[in-house]
Amino acid sequence: MSSYAGHAADCFPSITQKLTAYNINMHIGAYSRVYNDYGSITRDREERNLNSKNFPEFFADETVDADGADKNGGLDPKTTLLCTTKYERQCAAHIAKVLSKSLTAEGVTGKKVADYLHAYLGYSEQFADMYVMRDVTNRVK
Fold first, then answer.
1. CA distance 117 to 120
2. Is 38 in contact with 44 (CB distance < 8 Å)?
3. 10-to-22, 64, 112, 119 alpha-carbon distances in Å
4. CA contacts within 13 A on the Cβ side of 134
5. Less Cβ crowding at N or C end of the chain, within 10 Å?
């Protein structure tokens, strides 16, 4: 997200708005990455690529075997990834509401930036939703 909109005017004039916009981007980046991994678990395994499911931060060794299969009746890898993305999406949506309210209070320009922010968030969510449906990344040949 850029800090400037046309004519070199700062889109996020306050430090709080700048930090809030930065945090939205961090959450969108996190859920986009994990949704991508969600959709590509099979392809990543076949191509020997790293995936979120390969990291112990997501899955403790004692609950998931080498193939990612659950051994203790807990959540399977895909469900765990979806829970993670749900949390990140909720954080991004909440922060976007806070920033949007702050921007809208500044008048027409702020309202316009808030509208762009909602479009950005919507496009990010739509792209992430595609990975739930199927892996959209090309396979390595």
1. 5
2. no
3. 14, 48, 13, 19
4. 4
5. C
Q: What phi and psi, each to the nearest 5 degrees, are found at residue 6?
A: 50, 165
How far apart, in whole angstroms, are the C-alpha atoms of residue 37 and residue 63? Answer: 19
Task: Give the residue carrying structure tokens 């895909």.
Answer: 78
pLDDT digits 0-9 by tens, 52-87: 888 877 765 545 555 555 554 566 777 888 888 999
Q: What pLDDT, in 10s, does the model give residues 86-112? A: 999 999 999 999 999 999 999 998 999
Q: How many CB atoms lie within 10 A of CB 90?
A: 12
For residues 117 and 99, what is the distance between their CA atoms, to the nearest angstrom? Answer: 9
Q: Which of 17, 5, 15 lies closest to 100 in space, CA to CA?
A: 17
Gyration radius (Cα) of the chain, Å: 18
Dump strand ranges (E) for the chain: 4-5, 9-10
Q: What angle do CA 134, 24, 53 make, to 5 degrees?
A: 40
